[in-house]
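Reviewer 2 asked us to include a model.

Predict the structure of this chain.
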Amino acid sequence: MSGTARASDDSRSDLAGYDTVTLTLSWFNVGAQGLDLRLGLTNLLGETVRSPAPALTYDEDYPLVDERTLWVQLSYALP
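Predicted model (structure tokens):
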């Protein structure tokens, strides 16, 4: 994403742009019909992503993502 502009009354510099990459692998019918497994990695590049906070509130802005996250999902659909 390209840089994020601040409000017109905020004298701080604009936030830098960022790119995030999310990877998701899905396996369907794992061992049984209707049993699914998903494995994901969010923010593969480990970027720090922030949203601009209003002037005179948070100096470091609102953190949205600042670390990698590994997740697993197991689901079963009843026949």
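DSSP finds no helices and five strands in the chain. The mean pLDDT is 88. We have added this to the supplementary material.
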